[in-house]
Amino acid sequence: MSSAASAVQTPKTFAPRIFSGIQPSGGLTLGNYLGALKRFVEKQDEGIETIYCLVDLHAITVWQDPKVLRQQTREAAAGFIAAGIDPKRSILFNQSQVSAHAELGWIFNCVARMGWMSRMTQWKDKTAGKNAEAASLGLFAYPALMAADILAYHATMVPVGEDQRQHLELTRDIAIKFNNDYDVDFFPVVEPVIEGVATRVMSLRDGTKKMSKSDPSDQTRINLTDDADTIAAKIRKAKTDPKPLPDSIDGLKDRPEARNLVNIYAALAGHSVDQVIRDFAGAQFGTFKPALADLAVATLSPITAEMSRLMADAAEIDRILADGADRADALAQPILEQVFDITGMIRSRRKPSTAFQG
Ligand code: AQP
User: Fold this and answer.
1) For a substitution probing ligand 1, which of 64, 164, 190, 268 has the most ligand atoms within 8 Å of its CB?
2) Pairing of strands 91-94, 49-54
3) Is 26 in the pocket of ligand 1 (CB under 6 A)?
4) Is the shortest distance between the CB of 211 and ligand 1 below 6 Å?
5) Which mutation among 212, 260, 268 tests ligand 1's pocket best, with the greatest number of atoms within 8 A of CB?
6) Which is the closest atom of ligand 1 to the Cα of 199?
7) What would the pLDDT profile of 4-59 be if each residue is shown by its tens digit?
8) This prediction's pTM
9) Facing residues of 210 across strands?
10) Could you tell me the pLDDT band of residue 1, with boundaries at 50, 70 and 90?
11) Cα dihedral sign for 294, 296, 297, 302?
């Protein structure tokens, strides 16, 4: 611990600011939409400052074909805009265009501890049954980069799905350790925003497994690019049990596939799970699944159509990402400069006006 920075006065309160991201490691899924994207739009519409990032540096922690990655990044940007993110009101950009993420990520690699990282369940899940020695160092260090994504903006709230809860706890630990080590009150301790009935949308083929864009089977998920027939077919073939829907939530206990489809319906309709159970009590899946398919198609089709319209103009998407990156950079760079000051890095190429004043 250094006492050099202890004389420095730093802010104790932080203006509300939201940051969140999605990896362009595949096409966006219904899980990404309900667990994250839909709520990103709600937060934007509440008038809070919102920064949304396509985290391409995270995506390459597992192999990505460069051409496909570029395509998926543009497609994800189109998905955000089609779902309601307004690039004028929110900052929308891809991570690699703002170097502060990687630079602060390195600093946090030096703050986070090996033991913290090795306890991350996502690391364990992604290496389970595989040779962990062959996994990239980036995959192991992923949560430190995620902490940098958030803290480079002094973001205070992070809307995410349930699977990211542990990574956000680690972000809090990193902020607290940095503040303690350098005796400053510099980084906010962020609040996870994990809300709604669809914080964990499950696979259509296994109600105990998360719906994931990198699952080898396309039948496990609904993609935002799926057409109406594909959505209906995937829901029709979704795994269920032979019983009808119960007349109370308790009746969904130990029925993960039924629970998942009811949750998806509730999230798409904007109803409570209770309400859905009331409406469909005693119904067979032969009745419920077509109703769910109609609702999913009605919600997703306009988004899919708008995505494909936007995708026809890659240059316009790149322009939007460049503008977002410029605005993100303007917020992150002064914070990063202060981090360099706090940690004792000489910044003699910099204009004195940007130095850390405490
Ligand atoms: N199934 C899900 N239910 C609810 N929320 C979900 N999210 C992802 N899957 C679900 C939320 O979407 C945001 C972006 O996640 P990500 O793409 O950065 O990484 P992830 O959580 O690892 O998502 P995937 O689809 O499983 O990606 P891959 O397969 O590449 O690892 C996060 O807020 C996440 O909680």
Assistant:
1) 164
2) parallel
3) yes
4) yes
5) 212
6) 4
7) 444 445 456 899 999 999 999 999 999 999 999 999 999 999 999 999 999 999 99
8) 0.93
9) 202
10) very low
11) positive
